[in-house]
Task: structure prediction
Amino acid sequence: MDHDVAVVGGGAAGLAAAVFTARYGLDTAVFDGGKAAITQCAHIENYLGFPGGISPDRFLALGRAHATHEGAMVLDERVTAIDRHDTGGFRVETTGREVVADRVIVAAAYDGEVLAPLADALPEPDPFVPTEAGRTNVAGLYVAGWMSDETVHQVGVNAGHGARVGLALARDDMSERYWPAVGERYVDWVVHDGRYGGDDWDEHVEDWFDREMRPEDGSVDRSRLEAACEDLKGEFLGRCVDEEERAERERRGQRLLLEQLDDDVISEYARTVQSEDSADAGGDDDGD
Result:
């Protein structure tokens, strides 16, 4: 496989999905050679976290930066067709080449022509592709955002749907490595140091695993049971972040945001803050 995951489309849904699959650890490539539907908006004013709104181009630049930061590749190539490959994955044809991916997320307003080679396997879109958490009836093929029947043409909704699809794909991958009860436990977050671990923690997790995760039919051998339990332990412990690391991530995140802002806006704000600080300092001096 050239990639574990190929995301077709670099709009809100595709980039959100790529963030989740890349953070999970899958080799993720986003093919973004078309024009995102979001660019039809003059200004995005209903996306949580952007008081006053944000331009579509800046929003997409932030999304690309986020996906890249998490390890995904964003490529300026337009996908023209997706079909099955004899390896069991998918052949993804672009305007310049062909790649093979284990799984594919279609997250673009293609009107369905990109999926034409799979038309016999897919139910007829009416007008959207029927999905469940982005999953289609073709194993390994997911649809996020515009083409799915689970969302609407709103950027906030599509970004959320893309995240849901990325999470579903990650859970499917873990389910295939172990079994569904393990895969469905996967989540993507970090917690304060000390939330997991400590005295008797291993024993507590193993008891919980035996009680809730072990298949009752005995279909999983001992070595696989132990591997799954250790994987879940590592996942829990890996989510813990101490205060120093949390603070560093907070500052790093703010710096990455600054890189996407216009220099004149940053300079103007810095001058305003400096002026206010000087005024406050002068007021203190007068009071003394």
